[in-house]
Amino acid sequence: MSRIWLLFLLLMVLLLSGCDMNGNASTVASGHLILDSGHGDDGSAWGLPDCAACHPLALIHRRVSRIRDMVRDKGFDSCTGCHGGNGTQQPRRCVFCHNPGDLPSQPLGDGVNGHDFLKSGREPLSDGQCLVCHVASDMNGGFDINRDLTRFNDANGLATPYDSLSDFCLRCHNRDHQQAGFEITGTVSDDPLIAIEDAWRYSDKHGWIDGGGRTYAGLRDRYVYGSRVACTDCHTMHGTQNNGLVIDRSDQGTRQLTAFRQRAWPVLILEGDFSQLCVLCHDMEAVLEQGDLDTGNGLRGVHRVGEDCRPCHRHGEAVQAGM
Predict the structure, then answer these.
(1) In this predicted structure, what is the pLDDT of residue 255?
(2) 17 neighbors 25 (Cβ within 8 angstroms)
(3) End-to-end CA distance of the chain, in Å?
(4) At which of 60, 83, 106 does a domain end?
(5) What residues contact 308, with CB distance under 8 A and at least 6 apart?
(6) pLDDT at 268 exceeding the cut of 90
(7) Dihedral of alpha carbons 60, 62, 63, 69, sign
(8) Quick one: the chain helix, strand, coil %, rounded to 5?
(9) Residue 237 lies in a domain
(10) Is residue 112 part of a domain?
(11) Prior bond to 107 cis, omega within 30?
(12) What is the C-alpha to C-alpha distance for residues 194 and 217, in angstroms, rounded to an integer?
């Protein structure tokens, strides 16, 4: 077979598959990776289970170097994870690539506690659990809350855009407009799992809030008193050794600490002693009480170490002392 004939066949495959010469599906050029009924030439490829029929493995993702080699290594079994089932019953496969071996930092996290919607124990993460929160991510390496997170309804039952990561969290963690199928039950009235929305304007700011609270001088980097602190600055969804999904290393949270967080300062929470967490952001300018005492992770700067913080600093309460 002549080279010209081979080239003609290749061009026909690309045209029929809805791909450009770089192997990128035109149907997903806008960042919407999940294939729909328009896939192919006027939907001619919709419902077909065999990706290889139109997409040569050697050509796809030629300009997406971060995943090209992985896709070529894993083959067409990896397609559904990003692009959906294409109208078939093929399951979405997420942990096929997002696992400690292939993508250990995407997401970053392991440990005995995770946000996996499991009734008991800590079992390996399943694909279905990923899709609860990430049903249509664009997988472009940049995190966009309104593209990479599932759109849950707000208090009015509307799928409005999120204005922050915490807004996403609060659409489940509230008293009266939780999401169907993911109801939070069996909690007391001040449990932060449901009370945090009520206390949001109090408990997740620093300093003087509506005339209450205490201000401790000294914060690291870009944290400033009176600013919002995101849920994900202190809590990680994808695995930690600490209860309450509190981060167990600084690079799992503390988003505003830039270079500091990359040191991966360890965080161990024992019997209500949150000093190793608090010291990630707090660094006293004028040392008082135990401000010069190592919290156990190599950092200093909080007024109490080795004690239970909760009598004065409690999540979910509408009146906070310095929180």
Answers:
(1) 84
(2) yes
(3) 74
(4) 83
(5) 271, 272, 273
(6) yes
(7) positive
(8) 30, 5, 65
(9) yes
(10) no
(11) yes
(12) 31
pLDDT in tens, 43-67: 899 999 999 999 998 888 888 887 8
Distance CA 293, CA 305 (A): 7
- Look up residue 268 and give its two tokens: 């161990």
Helix, strand, or coil (residue 228):
strand
Nearest to 290 by CA among 308, 279, 302: 302
Tokens of 18: 């809805």
SS (H, E, C) 191-223: CHHHHCCCCHHHHCECCCECCECCCCCCECCCC
pTM: 0.80
Strand partners, 212: 209
Q: Which of 65, 83, 101 marks a domain boundary?
A: 83
pLDDT at site 9: 46
Residue-level pLDDT at 11: 45
Residue 249 dihedral angles phi and psi, to the nearest 5°: -160, 150
- CA dist 151 and 149 (Å) reads 6
Counting every residue, how long is the chain?
323
Residue whose structure tokens are 């993911």: 182
Q: pLDDT of 75-87, one tens digit each?
A: 999 999 999 999 9
2 CB contacts (<8 Å, ≥6 apart)?
A: none
Residue 68, domain extent: 3-83
Hey, CA dihedral for 212, 214, 215, 219, is it positive or negative? negative
Q: What domain count does the chain have? A: 2
Within 8 A by CB and 6+ apart from 287, the residues are none
